[in-house]
Amino acid sequence: MADNDPQPLLTPLALGPVTLKNRIVMAPMTRSRAENEGRVPVEIMATYYAQRASAGVIITEATQVSPQGVGYMHTPGIHSKEQVEGWKKVTDAVHQRKGVIFLQLWHVGRISHPDFHGGQLPVAPSPIDPQIDVYTHGGLKKSVTPRELATKEVKDIVLDFIRGAKNAREAGFDGVEIHGANGYLIEQFLRDSTNHRLDEYGGSIENRSRLLMEIVDGIGKEIGRERVGVRLSPANVWNIPADSDTKKLYESVIGRLSGTGLAYLHLREKAADVSNISNMVANVSEYFRPRYKGVLITNTGFNRETGNRTIASGLADLVAFGAPFIANPDLVERFAKNIPLASPDASTFYAGGPKGYIDYPPHR
Length: 364
Hints:
This protein is α/β, with parallel strands linked by helices. The chain has one domain: TIM Barrel (Alpha-Beta Barrel), CATH 3.20.20. Helices cover 30% and strands 16% of the residues. The chain has eleven helices and 14 strands. Helix 1 (43-51) packs parallel to helix 2 (81-96) and helix 3 packs parallel to helix 6 (210-223). The longest helix has 20 residues, at 151-170.
């Protein structure tokens, strides 16, 4: 597109009770800066998010709803009073710059290790080893076979997500995003490759999606559905195998979410070649856009040109950008003026401290 053409990405949009100044979303990205025993957000996290407050909406890094949900080093939580107070500094800093910020609620399920749980096994819908490498404080270790959750424990996890959403609102967040993607606990329940349960949370697609729907309904009653987003990854094969009929599964789940008053549905496009996997949709947003009534965010692999085309075509209402926001805190301005983007230093993504986190300069 020509530099002087109006950019669809830079147009406003109503999102539940807030109006976004543009359609550029900062995607949720784990950055591992909560380097303390309590996994409490620290000052540099407030600086980091405030630097990027020109985004239409920021979606934070994935944040544990309970200690049981931990699977990575130095990731923050939203289940303690100290964590809520730490997040208040983040939301205050973003709001001072007229930004909008949602918290992503997370439970990793089996994508963890006993090192994070005092030697106890991680939990999952079924006792199936993900067969991955896990980075722990004791170094890189092989995953283990998780413990199957009892039915009552699944219901307790629903309550953990509801409490997390309530805490997020207390911390000043404009809304929350339920992390149902990337092979973590909710997606483990959704797919029959990882869910072999015989109770009400296993078997049929309706039963396997029960956990997600109960979380959505419970949070919606607590803070209002207009402040709740859901993230799904129908073409994901990272951390998790495909379902026996992945297309049918996500048609059902997205159909049930459609038209229910959510703030948005956030879909990840494929991050790897899935052309050899039967019953898996490769062009996610293109396929599910007609099947979802409501605001749709698309994510993975977009740039200024493809993002603008996506909004102009109606394929999505918002486009989320991940890595470009790391090295370009002024990404919105760079898109507006077609300024070349800086490249992020991948060695600092999870390294801790300010380097590669809050020291990327704006354009000159």
